[in-house]
Amino acid sequence: MTFSRVAIVGLGLLGGSIGLAMREHLPGVASAGWDADPAVRERARERGLVATIADDPAEAVRGADLVILCVPVGAMAQAAHAVAPGLSPDCLVSDVGSSKQGVAGALEQALPNHAIIPAHPVAGTEQSGPDAGFSSLFHHRWCILTPPAHAEAAQVDALAAFWRALGATVEVMEPAHHDLVLAVTSHIPHLIAYTIVGTASDLEEVTRSEVIKYSAGGFRDFTRIAASDPTMWRDVFLHNRDAVLAMLGRFTADLDAMTSAIREGDGQAMHDLFSRTRAIRRGILAMGQDDARPDFGRGDHDERQGDEAEPPPQS
Ligand SMILES: NC(=O)c1ccc[n+]([C@@H]2O[C@H](COP(=O)([O-])OP(=O)(O)OC[C@H]3O[C@@H](n4cnc5c(N)ncnc54)[C@H](O)[C@@H]3O)[C@@H](O)[C@H]2O)c1
Ligand SMILES: O=C(O)C(=O)C[C@]1(C(=O)O)C=C[C@@H](O)C=C1
């Protein structure tokens, strides 16, 4: 099976990028969309993020065989309720939320009579809103599907084919495992970035303008991550609480060990850890998998470096 009409709910970075990527890679598939914010709908029309933008959520999804919810994870249930009256009985509902267990539960509760296959394209930037999307966002990136045990194989295959068509490499995972893995590879790194930038800013009387002046190095990378959308990330930490807390426990134990090494002048412990982490990075590069992109090193990837090389989001 393939999809002939896809409706996108939430037309920010993720929703807009899906719409633009569909226009490029799936020109024969009809696209429609809706966003709760009228100003976003207006801007999405101007940019042509999807072919049709309805002012009514039920209207936007009418006739769609795939609906993708691209709203913050805390707004998934509300968005699902809004589109419910317009959903065809055989429409597949999916999402792009950064955490999966909570979203799956919320969607199953909101739409008990619909097939739901949650998904997470592990691709994004610190930008958000209808101007942020670009068509190559998913190129050479993972998209993780977390189908429930009772999901129809044909629907899982169709959703996987949709994401592959947009340039992603698809992996299937248990939702609980997804949430643990992403807690350590994405959620805690964001928490660390938010915290270190906040700490530096709180120390402003010590650092004065030096936070900005000397932020050309590693700290600059943290400020990019710490510029990510506050609503999105608040929701991620509220909805992936248990996995984040479990992984934070491990992280703080390791940080305590390094604190002790510094206090006790244990250079060997520091050197051992830094050598191990350097070997990990070099191993990734040797495998041609920089940034763990699925097929990085094939030669046709974009060499994004922080925000400098971001493709200009233009329609
Ligand atoms: N930003 C990233 O790097 C990234 C990467 C992968 C997945 N995600 C996930 O994708 C989802 C969307 O993130 P984004 O970065 O596109 O955010 P965004 O802020 O750019 O866009 C979200 C859009 O949803 C709209 N919205 C909010 N509540 C709504 C509702 N109830 N009904 C309809 N529209 C509503 C907002 O008006 C906004 O336009 C989130 O669940 C996030 O966790 C984000
Ligand atoms: O590249 C970035 O700026 C991102 O934060 C992208 C990123 C990530 O942590 O890798 C952020 C959240 C997502 O759910 C998926 C991707």
From TrEMBL:
Region (Disordered): 289-315
The UniProt record lists the keyword Amino-acid biosynthesis: yes
Top-level class of the enzyme under EC nomenclature: oxidoreductase
Pfam family membership, one: PDH_C
Biased composition annotated in UniProt, kind: Basic and acidic residues: 290-307
Pathway: Amino-acid biosynthesis; L-tyrosine biosynthesis; (4-hydroxyphenyl)pyruvate from prephenate (NAD(+) route): step 1/1
EC number(s) given by UniProt: 1.3.1.12
Record carries keyword Oxidoreductase: yes
Entry keyword set: Amino-acid biosynthesis, Aromatic amino acid biosynthesis, NAD, Oxidoreductase, Tyrosine biosynthesis
Reactions that this protein is recorded to catalyse: prephenate + NAD(+) = 3-(4-hydroxyphenyl)pyruvate + CO2 + NADH
Xref: SUPFAM superfamilies: 6-phosphogluconate dehydrogenase C-terminal domain-like, NAD(P)-binding Rossmann-fold domains
GO MF entry, a single one: prephenate dehydrogenase (NADP+) activity
PROSITE patterns the record matches: PDH_ADH (PS51176)
Example of a GO biological process term: tyrosine biosynthetic process
InterPro entries attached to this UniProt entry: 6-PGluconate_DH-like_C_sf, NAD(P)-bd_dom_sf, PDH_C, PDH_N, Preph/Arog_dehydrog, Prephen_DH
Domain Prephenate/arogenate dehydrogenase, residue spans: 4-292
UniProt-listed PANTHER family: PREPHENATE DEHYDROGENASE, PREPHENATE DEHYDROGENASE [NADP(+)]
Family classification: Belongs to the prephenate/arogenate dehydrogenase family.
Stated name of the protein: prephenate dehydrogenase
Phylogenetic placement of the source organism: Bacteria, Pseudomonadati, Pseudomonadota, Alphaproteobacteria, Sphingomonadales
